[in-house]
Structure formats: structure tokens, C-alpha cells
Amino acid sequence: MAQAAEIVQVFQPKDYKSDLKPIWCAGCGDFGVLNALYKAMAACNLDPNNTVVVSGIGCSSRLPGFVSTYGFHGVHGRALPIATGIKLARPELNVIVVGGDGDGYSIGAGHLPHCARRNPDITYLIMNNNVYGLTKGQVSPTSTIPLISLQSKQDPKRWKTTPYGSTEDPIDPIVQAIAHDISFVARGFSYKPNQLADLLTQGIRHKGFALIDAFSPCPTFNQDQTDEFYKERTYDVPLDHDPTNKLKAFELALSDEGFPIGLIYKKERKVSVQDELAFLRESAVPQSLDQMFAHFMS
Question: What is the set of domains in the chain, with CATH numbers?
Fold first, then answer.
């Protein structure tokens, strides 16, 4: 029996670093997420010339500039349709989507269920800091009660948008992702970059739509959900957890023991939107302009 060819790692994490230095605030969790992404891309041997990183708007959405691949800095909340279009037009490309909880779970939330059902072969990395960081501290869909917006450093007398705290229950993005039947759902933590890199590697290699929600604390504008907050409340997914069992995935995601870190749900789906488009192209009746007219005139 022939031996399987050993995969030789051609690229190293440093090969994905651009000349542009990250400009996030000191202590931002996005630094750890970016380093985890470098490691995952190297582990998957992604050719920078055949890789595209797509983002929307926000602090974390600046990430494409820090990676030496092709990049697309889109508009707020529209990273998923842009990435899907790229994958359909150039299915041979590796497509990675990045953004924050405000970009992905607020204005961009309506794209999640439709991307889930289309199941494009793309990876979506969401840096979840439970706050709008770029616009200086407004509550986001994942902000917990009672997150209080910080005062302006320039004008301590001027309060932000929620001086008395958020009064709205936060969404649970993992539960929603499982309900949408996204075919790969995982959660990581920026202070565990090696574990996050492994989850990203699995997500990139997964055939279909993969979502990795990564806790990425914002020490500047969210001093409620700090790195210590998550260190005390996160725990590794149990070794005996079966991610292919949807009910068990829901049970794990809804656990009141804290936030599970690891692969939570996975579903092998044989068909993606790329497969459907290829089928339509091959099955289309009109093969020429004359045939098209004849088809519609008959």
C-alpha cells in the first residue's frame, strides 16, 4: 500500500507579516489573535499569493493590512457577502474573513444564517471584545449587563452612550451559530494563542463555512470583561464531547459553568455553494446565444 505523502511546511508564521505594524491599543487581545492566525496560515501552508483576507469595519477589521496576502477592507457588516463573492469567482483562493462582534453580530448578523445555508468554503474569525472599540466604547450585541461606557479621556464630564449601563440582554453567538447550522463552530481565547491557532487551522481545513468566535479583551473601553474575567470563566471543551451531536453542542454552549473553549459543533456537509454553482453551470440548457433564444422562444 502506498504511503501517504508527508506534508512539508513551506511557509512560516513570519512569512505572513506585512510591513505595516499593528496599531491596536496596548494590551488589546487582537495582537494574540493575529499571531494565532499567522501560525494557522503557516500550518495550512497557505500561499500568500492565493489567499485573501476580508474584513468589515472596526478595530479588528484593520487586520488585513497586517497580513502579507491580498486583502479587502469592506464596509460595515458586509464582509461575508464580499468573501462569498470572492470564493465563487475564484474558488481556488483561500478566503478568510475577520471582524469584531459589532461588525459580525450587529449590522452583519443578517448575513450569518444565509452564509450558513450556502456553506461557502470560507473561514470567519470574529474577535469578540463585547464592545464597540473603534467608536470608543458603545455597547455591542454581546455586551453584558450592566456594561457602563467609559467617560471620555479628553473630557471627563462628557459621558458615553450608556452612562448607567447596558439594559439589554446579550446575544449568545455560539448558540446562534449552532441554530443556523454553521458547519464548523468553535470558540477561542486570545490569551491562549496556540489553542486558538489549532482551532483556526481546523477551521481553514474544514470544507465549508467555519466560524471561530475568539474572546479578545479590550482593556481600553471594556474594563468589565478583561483578560482576568475570561481566565476565571473559560474552560476547555471536555475531551469526551462529541461535536457532531447537535443537541450536545447546544447543551455545552448553554452551560452555566462558564465559556467552553474549543470545537463545539461540526457537521460534514457534502454540498457547498461552489458545488451548486458548478452544477448550474454544467446543467444550464443554453450553450450559445442561438440556443438561448430558442430555449426561451419555445
Answer: 13-297 (3.40.50.970)
